[in-house]
Amino acid sequence: MAEESDSESLEEYSVNGSIVLSDDQLREEVTSLVQRDNCEERCIQGKAAELENFSRSLSHMSSREKKQSVMTALAMLMKMDTAARV
Asked: Whole-angstrom Cα distance, residue 38 to residue 69?
């Protein structure tokens, strides 16, 4: 039953024009992000699972939802970084 609803939701996203990434594509995207990490402290190293989950959720969102989600995540990370310095 869950497989049926999963395939229906995937079809719904492809009909709506969103891009649904496969597991291999997600791993490639996350690997690329980790390799391009410009943070001197290697901030995203060891966070592959979190990045993969975040990327997977983004692949199911509209452009507007993606922008809002990324901006919210960045704002939260900035607050956490500031709190860690205090």
From this structure: 22
Show the CA angle centred on residue 79, arms to residues 81 and 52, nearest 5°.
75
The confidence score (pLDDT) of residue 69 equals 92
Please give the Cα distance from 10 to 22 (Å, whole number): 11
Count CA atoms closer than 13 A to 35's CA, side-chain side: 6
Instruction: Find the largest Cα–Cα distance for the chain.
Output: 50
Question: Which residue ranges make up each domain of the chain?
Answer: 18-85
Please say whether the beta carbons of 43 and 37 come within 8 A: yes
Q: Taking Cα atoms as reference points, which of 60, 71, 56 lies closest to residue 10?
A: 60
Q: What pLDDT, in 10s, does the model give residues 37-74?
A: 887 878 788 888 888 888 888 888 898 999 999 999 88
